[in-house]
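lol forgot to send this yesterday, sorry. C-alpha cells for the thing we talked abt
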C-alpha cells in the first residue's frame, strides 16, 4: 500500500441498505472489515455515514418516507441509534472502536465550534478510534431536505478539509463520473481522471440520487471541488464491493479520481 494517510470515506444510504430500507448486512460487514484493516495498517480512517433516515424507515416498517420534516427527523433519530449500534458492534469484532460525531452546518461555519470539532477529531484519531460522522438530523434539516450538505457529500468534503485529509473517497451506487448518464446510455464512457472541475464537468454530473438517498452525482462533483481546491484528492467509486478500497490504496483507480489542485 501507499504511505500511511488520513482518509475520509463517505458512504451513502444506497450503499448501506436494500430498497426496503433494511441494512445490507453483508456489505455493512465488508465495509467495517476493510476500514478496520486499513486502520490496522496505520492509516487514519474517518467514516462519514448517511443512512439514518433510510435505516429508520426500515426499522419502523414504514413503506415510504413521510413528507413532514419533524417526522423525518424522528425517524432519522431512530435510525441513527441502529446505525451506531451496528458500527460499534462490527468495528468491535475487528478490535477497533467507533465514536459518533454528529455535526451541523453551523458547527462548520462557526470558528469556535469548528475548532472544538477539530480538537475532538484529533483526540479520537490519536487514540486510534474511528470517528463515524453524520449530520445531526434531530436538530438540522439540511440532509433530510437534500440541501447544503446534500446527502452528506458536501459534509464529507468539509470534514476532509477540516481535518486536513490526504484523500476523500465517496462510495456510491455508480462506478464514477460518466460523460453521459449510464442509466440511459449503455455506451456511456467513464471518466477515469479529472484534472480540473470546470463547467463541462459540472454539466456531466446532472441528475438525482436513488429513492433512498438525497444526493446525486452533482453533489459529489461539488464535494470533489471543495476537496480538490483544498489540496485533497477525491475519488468517486462504486461501493457495492467495499474491497475496492484496497485497489485504491494500492495505487489503482477503480472509479473517477479528481486530482488535487496543487498549491
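and heres what i got for the seq, position by position
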Amino acid at each position: 500500500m501507499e504511505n500511511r494517510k488520513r482518509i475520509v470515506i463517505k458512504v451513502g444510504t444506497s450503499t448501506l441498505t436494500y430498497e426496503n430500507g433494511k441494512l445490507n448486512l453483508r456489505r455493512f460487514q465488508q465495509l467495517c472489515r476493510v476500514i478496520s484493516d486499513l486502520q490496522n495498517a496505520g492509516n487514519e480512517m474517518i467514516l462519514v455515514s448517511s443512512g439514518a433516515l433510510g435505516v429508520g424507515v426500515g426499522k419502523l416498517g414504514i413503506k415510504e418516507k413521510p413528507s413532514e420534516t419533524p417526522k423525518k427527523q424522528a425517524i432519522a433519530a431512530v435510525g441513527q441509534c441502529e446505525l451506531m449500534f451496528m458500527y460499534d458492534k462490527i468495528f468491535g469484532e475487528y478490535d477497533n472502536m467507533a465514536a459518533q460525531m454528529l455535526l451541523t452546518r453551523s458547527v462548520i461555519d462557526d470558528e469556535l465550534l469548528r475548532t472544538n470539532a477539530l480538537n475532538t477529531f484529533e483526540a479520537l484519531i490519536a487514540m486510534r478510534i474511528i470517528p463515524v460522522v453524520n449530520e445531526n438530523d434531530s436538530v438540522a434539516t439540511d440532509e433530510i431536505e437534500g440541501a447544503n450538505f446534500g446527502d452528506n457529500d458536501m459534509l464529507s468534503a468539509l470534514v476532509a478539509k477540516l481535518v486536513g485529509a490526504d484523500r476523500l473517497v465517496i462510495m456510491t451506487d455508480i462506478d464514477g463520473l460518466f460523460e453521459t448518464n449510464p442509466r440511459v446510455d449503455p455506451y456511456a464512457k467513464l471518466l477515469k481522471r479529472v484534472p480540473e472541475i470546470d463547467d463541462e464537468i459540472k454539466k456531466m454530473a446532472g441528475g438525482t440520487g436513488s429513492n433512498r438517498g438525497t444526493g446525486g452525482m452533482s453533489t459529489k462533483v461539488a464535494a470533489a471541488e471543495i476537496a480538490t481546491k483544498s489540496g485533497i484528492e477525491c475519488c468517486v467509486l462504486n461501493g457495492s464491493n467495499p474491497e475496492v478500497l484496497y485497489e485504491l490504496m494500492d495505487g489503482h483507480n477503480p472509479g473517477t479520481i479528481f486530482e488535487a489542485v496543487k498549491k
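The radius of gyration is 17 Å. anyway ping me if u want another try
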